[in-house]
Amino acid sequence: MEPPQLTATETSLILLVGVFNQYASGDSDKKTLSKDEFGKLVKEEFPLIFQGKDAADIMKRLDKNKDNLIDINEFMHMISDLVGKSYKMMCDLEPKK
Hints:
This protein has helices at about 10-25, 35-45, 55-60, 70-95, and strands at about 30-35, 70. It is built from 4 helices and 2 strands; from the N terminus they run αβααβα.
C-alpha cells in the first residue's frame, strides 16, 4: 500500500518549516533564529520582498516575547502577514468590474 500523497498545501507547510529549520541550525539552539540567522534568512529567502529593509527592524517587530530570538511561531506570524499582503496585492491587480 502506498503512503498518502501530500497536497500542495501540506507540501508548502513542510517546506516552510524546513526553511526555518535550515537557518535555525546555524548555532547550538536549533529551535530559534538568532539575529544573524534571521538576517541571513531574510536576505536569501526574501530578497525582493524585504529589499532595502533592515532585518534587525523586522526582527524587533516579530519578536513578541522580546528574547532577541525568532521562534517558529513568530516566524509563522511573518509568513501569515506575507500571505495576507500577497493576497491583497493580487486582489488589487484584478481588473475592476
